[in-house]
Amino acid sequence: MIKKHAIIVHLYYSDLWEEFKSRIEPIMKRGDVDLYVTITEDDISVKDDVEKLTRNVYVLSNKGLDIGPFIYVMDKIKDLEYTSIFKIHTKKSLHHGIDPMIGIIWRNTLIDSLIGDEEIFDEITKIIEDEPISMIGSTQFLSNFKVDAVNLPHHYEVIKRTIGLLNLKISESRNNQNIIFSKNGKFFAGTMFATSHKYIKEVFSSCDMLNFYENLPLGYVYNSNAHAMERIFGYYVEELGGNFYEID
Q: 169-192: per-residue pLDDT in tens?
């Protein structure tokens, strides 16, 4: 019998495994959660330890940042029927040229809003069961382009192109001199969120997930399809009339 919920972790920074494991282990004891972990072939140092917690471990090339491995796993489980999907990763934000402490705070805030404890996890899964077309994450990192104007002009072309690759229809409107995708241009910055399996399958319903993954660039490439997906995951919730829920 398939369990109801899936946590998908991209463990690019292996030194953070203990930090993640301490949050995930108590939730796994519920008995209705499957854990999927991706690691890069450049660093498999914690693979054996990860496999003590789950058999679902994939060693992949460093392709598509945290988005590529997530899509790879989603392709693997597309025929399973999970209720909710939790997407998390070992974010450090080292490419942004910011104080490393900001990356630590950003990561922990995002993670704690999703798997900080069993109560939070239970609250989120109940919301998703009631509203499959929804997305849940940290209050602090829910971006709204109408309010925040989150650097969309820099990403417009790649977002537009990626929407085309997915064969999705997402509306556009103008806010002063800027173009907004969908109603408000909402998404969770940092790309850690919970949503339904149904929703993720809807995003990729008109394209080949594995082919999309294979065509993502290797390594860190600014303004790639992977960056666009961070936003598209949110935009399409709005386009389908879904809701965003914020966890403090």
A: 999 988 777 888 999 999 998 999
